[in-house]
Amino acid sequence: MVPAHEKILADPRFKQLVSRRNRFAITLSVIVLAVYISFVSVAIFNPALFSMPLMGTSAWCVGLVVGFCIQAFAFVMTGIYTARANGQFDRLAREAIRGTIA
Amino acid sequence: MIRVFFLSAAALVAIAGSGLAAGGAIDGDVTKRSVNVIAIAMFLFFVAATLGLTAWAARRTKSASDFYTAGGGITGFQNGLAIAGDYMSAAAFLGVSGMVFGKGVDGVFYTVGWTVGWPLILFMIAERLRNLGRFTFADVASFRLEQTRIRTLSAFGALTVVIFYLIAQMVGAGKLIQLLFGLEYAYAVILVGVLMMLYVTFGGMLATTWVQITKAVLLLSGCTLLVLLGLKHFGFSPEAMMQAAIDNHAAHEAILSPSSSISDPITAISLALALMCGPAGLPHILMRFFTVPDAKEARKSVFYATGFIGYFFMLAVTIGFLAITLVGTNPAYLDEAGKLLGGGNMAAIHLSGEVGGDVFLGFISAVAFATILAVVSGLALSGASAVSHDLYARVIKKGRASDKTEMMVSRMATLVLGVLAIALGLVFENQNIAFMVSLAFGLAASVNFPVLFLSIFWKNMTTRGAFIGGLMGLFSAVGCVVLGPTVWVNVLGFETAIFPWEQYALFSMTAAFGGIWFFSVTDRSERAKLDKAGFPAQFVRSETGLGAAGAVAH
Predict the structure, then answer these.
(1) Partners of residue B324 in chain A, C-beta under 8 Å
(2) How confident is the model at residue B12 (pLDDT cuts 50, 70, 90)?
(3) pLDDT above 80: residue B21
(4) What is chain B's mean pLDDT, rounded?
């Protein structure tokens, strides 16, 4: 292993970066997965809820509208991650590299 | 080089011309439309524009890095559009709207699965892939493992996915063009194959990317217009549209309930897994992450791509519901049995003619064709790079191949893949496209994805584990398909399937992950020690991008 790598591995900023980013990425993944699994479960185990009219009267069913919302939600989640990773996490990564190489 | 390109382009125009003439000469064939002049004119305009683009790209494609990744100089926004372009295949556009037209909300089950895979790719894979890899995903999978075995496995994983996907696209293209433009099936397949070879061999990734971007913009704007024109018939009220769909569909309210095909838990879980993990194993999608300069742009690409993909699928589903009323109640689009002319996948095409007349029909037809063309180009490029970069340069030449010969091999591989795609497209004319796509997704999810994912995250994975586990995923996926209903019953004609489910990812992914785990933890070889010792360096690079391949200035 290149010495720089060993130094970075031991650097507290690197550890902070990895643990913070992992926590964030895992939290978001769990949220996305939970939403998706609930959606699939309702479609399989409770089709009546899936096909219930939205607000009781609409011709659109709950499942369809929720499906569209999940697609929009997926976009929002990628936005949240990208904003934080491209700002805060990249800054931490740069500091960790600069601090050990210089 | 440029002169060869223009000569082949001219030859192609001649072939297309003779194909048109032949198409016009045969009028008795009922499955084929009369030659659609507006559609052909619009399509030829698209072809001319993209060939111009290819000529421009050819002048900039000098090194292997240019050829495989457009020099890493694509921006996040451009790459996002191109990823969306790669992902929004004709199967997705026509298939989803056709499924909604036929069965109702089932289509949403698919589109949600196809969309939620993207945030997960972003959180887990995108930036690490960019930091570790250079040209192909095998670069990442074999980063700290033994090159020969893992590269070979990944290259074959990539090639099988590419070939199944290519066959599906070629057959789809042939049928579609036959129907839309009144061209002979064989001419249509040859035309697509030749155009694909031109884009890729001459323009490499730069041309492929811009063809993809052009197509994505056309498809997104075309679908938006289609939905707006359709909603106009309902006074722009989605409520009125849905009410009319329920009234006019033969199944009435039942179109709002998931059908039996997805209500079996095992099937639904397998399908959900394949839809979610499949994209993270599709070589032509993964390759797109190497076209951007750094991890920052890779993240942005997924952000934009997810937005475009989510929006596109909402449109595709809405198009299906619009078509139920506007197409399904119009006898002009139905045969004697009340079935849609040209098959269930034609709902969106008929709808465009209904709401926008011949010009719009021509436009949407040309967009559908352009979609296929762009997707096959991306596939061919990733297949060719698996041959030239992974098999030739790394496995056979052990990294001692020059840039120049590697590119030459890549171009040859593109030509071979093109000829193969044309030949298989002709052979499989009457095959079911959907099953081929499902096989491609299933293989991607159960061979490429497990190896890639664990090589990034699991420090104890060894070469032996990855190799055996990957093969287990490959064989179990192929086994499930061959012994399952789609091949054993429908193709081979046996009474009952040995493997009862149509969806199999749950089983093949378990085999792959289980195999990798078992054969890694029991691995006591010298190589295993090397594999594990390589992890810390890989970890630093994957997390920080230190040492990652950067963009090449032009």
Answers:
(1) none
(2) low
(3) no
(4) 86
Instruction: Give the closest of A43, A63, A74 to B119, CB-based.
Output: A74
pLDDT > 70: percent of chain A: 94
The whole-angstrom separation of Cα B170 and Cα B161 is 14
Beta carbons of A40 and B256 less than 8 Å apart: no
Which of B109, B231, B540 best probes binding to A when mutated, by most A CB atoms within 10 angstroms? Answer: B540
Q: How far is CA B157 from CA B467, B475, B514, in A?
A: 11, 11, 18
State the residue for tokens 């054993």.
B488
Domain spans of chain A? 3-101
Q: Which residue of chain A has the CA closest to B260?
A: A44
Q: Is residue A101 classed as helix, strand or coil in its secondary structure?
A: helix
State the smallest CA–CA distance between residue B438 and chain A in angstroms.
19
Cα B399 from Cα B384, distance rounded (Å): 17
Candidates B103, B445, B113; CA nearest to B309 is B113
3-state per-residue secondary structure call for B498-533: CCCCCCCHHHHHHHHHHHHHHHHHCCCCHHHHHHHH
CATH of region B2-544? 1.20.1730.10
Residue type, B339: K
Q: Is B272 within 8 Å of A96 when comparing Cβ atoms?
A: no
**CA–CA min distance A74, chain B (Å):** 6
pLDDT digits (tens, 9 = 90+) for B68-115: 999 888 999 999 999 999 888 887 888 889 889 988 888 888 889 889
Confidence of residue B4 (pLDDT cuts 50, 70, 90): low
Mutant choice from B88, B110, B127 vs A, greatest count of A C-beta within 10 A: B127
Chain B residues close to A79, C-beta within 8 Å: 303
CA distance to partner chain B, nearest, from residue A60 (Å): 6
Is A39 in contact with B112 (Cβ distance < 8 A)?
yes
* Angle between helices B90-103 and B347-385 in degrees, nearest 10: 140
Condensed to tens digits (0 to 9), the pLDDT of residues B353-381 reads 999 988 898 898 888 888 888 899 999 99
